[in-house]
Structures are given as structure tokens and as C-alpha cells.
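Chapter summary example: a protein plus tetrahydrodeoxyuridine.
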Amino acid sequence: MENKELVREALEARKQSYCPYSSFAVGAALLCGDGTIFRGCNIENAAYPATNCAERTAFFTAIAKGERDFVAVAIAGGKAGEEPEDFCAPCGVCRLVMREFCGDAFVIILAKPGEEKVYTLKDLLPQSFSPRDVLGEKAKR
Ligand code: THU
């Protein structure tokens, strides 16, 4: 799977964004170990904290389907109705959700049309609190 293909999926996912409050539309495409891709968009709420980010929508959709093996996520965000102008990095809560289900080498692709920046989860969440801190050796990560 090429990064470009995953980025295309994120841009498609972004079209479903429900963002009447911020007008900031985000799309994410999550690649699983078996090649399956799950799309997610941000879903806002009149009670703002109830908003769900695009990344978590993709993760929770995949997890609810039984997926547990994740390879990479592509993320694209910006003003709704326009092409993203800047890179959109995942928020802290989304990074923690990634940490729960992914290892250090999980790939995070930030995308805007024609350009991408590639990181690992370790790059974006160093020295993290993880399942191992609570569960010890029983933890997968
Ligand atoms: N948002 C995401 O979906 N993902 C991110 O990584 C950053 C922020 C959403 C939440 C909210 O709907 C809008 O962007 C503005 O914060």
C-alpha cells in the first residue's frame, strides 16, 4: 500500500466531516495489517466536548469491527469546502488512543494535496504512558 493511496482515502473520508461549529473538516484513513482501510471524519456536537476527531472515528470503527492490528494512519484537515492548506497533526487524545492499540513504529502520515510528512507514533508521543504501565508484562504494548 502506497502512502499516496492512504492519503487519497483520508481526503475522501474528509468529505463526510460533520463540522458545523468549527468549519474545520478532518479525514483519516487507518490501514490495518490485513490491508483493510477504515475511514473516519470528525463529528462535532453542539456540546463541544462531545466532538469526536477523525482519527478516533477511524480507530473506533475498526476496533468495533474486531480489528486490532494497525499499520498506519493518514490524516488531512483544513477549512471545510477547501483543500487543506496546512498539515493537521493529531490531538493529544487521539495520540493516546493510538498508543493504546499501536506500537512505537506505527506510522502517522500528515497530508495536504501533493505533500506529506511521515512520523512514527514514537516521534509524536515520546515517553508515553502506555498499557504496560498499568498491566505490566501482560500488556501487548
Ligand atoms: N480535529 C480532528 O478531527 N482531528 C485532529 O487531529 C484535530 C482536530 C477536529 C476536532 C474538531 O471537530 C475540529 O477538528 C476543530 O478542532
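Key point: Residues 16 and 29 are 12 Å apart (CA to CA).
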